[in-house]
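does this look right to u?? zinc ion version
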Amino acid sequence: MSVKQQVDHLIVNGEIFTGERASPHLNNGAIAVNGNRIVAIGDARSLQERYQSESVTDVGGAIVHPGMIDTHVHAISLGLHSLPVSIDKASASKFSYADVKVQTDDESTDALTAAAAVALLRRGYTCFMEAGTVFETDAFAAALQRIGMRGMVSAPFGWDDVSIFESLAPATITKRLMERAPANRAAVIRRLERELTRNADKDALVTGYVCLYGECSATDALTRDASDLARQAGVLFNQHQGFVRQWQEFEHAKYGISGVQRLHRLGALTERTTLSHMNVMSDADAELVVKNRPGITWCPNNALHRAVHPQDHCRLPWLIDRGVCVSLGIDTTMYHPLGTAGMASLLLSASVGHRLDDAEPFYMQTANAARNIGYADELGTLAVGKRADIVVRAVEDITHTALEQAGALLALSSSQIPVDLVMIDGRVVMKDGRLTATDQTELLRSALRQRRRILERAGASAE
Ligand SMILES: [Zn+2]
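got this back:
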């Protein structure tokens, strides 16, 4: 009689969506986890013949999938969900986003990051890339580590030339923001280097990457230095690019070439680069992207919200066909409910005449997303050797089930199927939709208190 191998966790009887396009689905499947890695995945019966564990979770046919990854979210904006802000005109709304986002301190960033983590976990995300706008990065990292969630963080507002915003969006660069985030190349590089020290620990849940704010707000020198730093450190280089036409035109007028062409000229348009948005690009830009293979984080909600298309042709579905790795981001969440980028990408793709496959948003938020944050070998799919970041959904009404696989993936990535269990790096961090390591109710109360503090201060400083 063969001896069964002892493992830390066995998840059995799941409808498993692996995130691997070659073998996407396992009916009645199981996953064996030891330490922080997946050691086996396959048919439940055969896996249980080979493995045993003190911790066996029978998920009773529920959907199981790799933890989803949002590759562009401004973390503090999650805590400000539904706040009536304007990024363009301070006078158009009660609060200017620029006034609000500079009011954070360690205490508020800790509380709002923890609250953001819960909101993401409850929608099946186990990792997210903070889009370079958190000032108190240590408080951010500490909050995620306490909960057990992954995140990526970088220098806040990496820029050294804000003339584009002075010209086109003056309300976004208040005096207070420029005090906290000076347009200074040396200071940005120092801060980037500091954030990268997090990566010395290979098992760190929160890692650093190189982020510039982008959209023509970095000189050639800063862009080159930051991209070199990313290459030396073996991490991702990321910036906003191609959000709206006016910003593209500004960059073209200033440098005589498009932003994408400028990145290419500076050696910053490589496979290690991920650009966020890319709503607006020329044919020549699109060809450069196909040739140089940077990843793209698509934020379809924001493209729809700002009515970028059809005035400017949306090229993302065509670029996907040509092998460009596109992932999804929710960006800011004042207007865009978390978890809706998948559905928005499908609707937007249809409206521009190139409907994506129903399953595509799922891959854009798993395997593609892992590649676009620089962790293709570690995250994004359920496969032997990968980190054990696993989500088990609940079935609470009939819309949480599906009759066929593509439909299930569509439902999964584009609606709000409740999350039951979340494992990250082999640890169960959420069970029955509640955090295992922290009092979720107290955490929410604390975040609401901190949000009030921030808004009070923003109101005071605006007067
Ligand atoms: Zn953004």
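The mean pLDDT is 93. idk if thats expected tbh
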